Amino acid sequence: MKTQELTIQGMSCGHCVLHVNKALSMLNGVKVESVEIGKALVKIDESIVTREHIAKAIEEAGYKLVP
């Protein structure tokens, strides 16, 4: 698994942190280390999940993954 720090736009409060944490936790191949306003630290199994899957999950939660 590869550790990545994701930059996420649109987060402004603890509620946002919970939404992003939940969205990332539901993805197979992603282990959430931490989520803070504007960023998340995750471990990703690139043989299972792609960055596009992660971006889609974040967008469906109402936020945007910064490239």
Q: Could you describe the 3D structure shown?
A:
By secondary structure, this protein is an alpha+beta fold. The chain has a single domain (2-65), classed as 2-Layer Sandwich (Alpha-Beta Plaits), CATH 3.30.70. Helix content is 33%, strand content 34%. It is built from 2 helices and 4 strands, in the order E-H-E-E-H-E. The chain has helices at residues 14-25, 51-60; strands spanning 2-9, 30-36, 39-44, 64-65. A 4-stranded antiparallel β-sheet has the order 2-3-1-4, with helices on one face. A hairpin with a 2-residue loop joins strand 2 and strand 3 (39-44). The chain is globular.
Tags for this model:
33% helix; alpha+beta; single chain; four-stranded antiparallel sheet; Alpha-Beta Plaits; 67 residues
